[in-house]
């Protein structure tokens, strides 16, 4: 007769867990704006720093590469450094998400939307 109450209790637990997950996801989203990663190219001649969300924050270029004859090379190095930083940002975001899902007892490789 009271069998339905057990299911409601399970539903309440699930709702609470979902709410906790939502709060942790929101906190992680905010943290991603503060986590910095640096990508580089040309053996460190060009460095790009971005947030774990992939937002470019700074670019550091060694002055030795500024030669008007090498304009395309410099542009390629800049793009490569930015792509490296963005790739590292994606990896960092996935690492942080894995920590969150593991902490909640979910599969480590579970992909959740950002």
From TrEMBL:
Subcellular location: Cytoplasm, Nucleoid
Pfam families assigned: YbaB_DNA_bd
Keywords: Coiled coil, Cytoplasm, DNA-binding
SUPFAM superfamilies from the UniProt entry: YbaB-like
UniProt key word Cytoplasm: yes
Main location: cytoplasm
Coiled coil: 11-38
Gene Ontology molecular functions: DNA binding
Any one GO cellular component localisation term in the record: bacterial nucleoid
Region (Disordered): 90-114
InterPro entries linked: YbaB-like_sf (IPR036894), YbaB/EbfC (IPR004401)
Basic and acidic residues compositional bias, start-end: 90-99
Keyword DNA-binding: yes
Functional summary from the UniProt entry: Binds to DNA and alters its conformation. May be involved in regulation of gene expression, nucleoid organization and DNA protection.
Family of this protein: Belongs to the YbaB/EbfC family.
Oligomer status and interactors: Homodimer.
Protein's recorded name: Nucleoid-associated protein ROG8370_03654
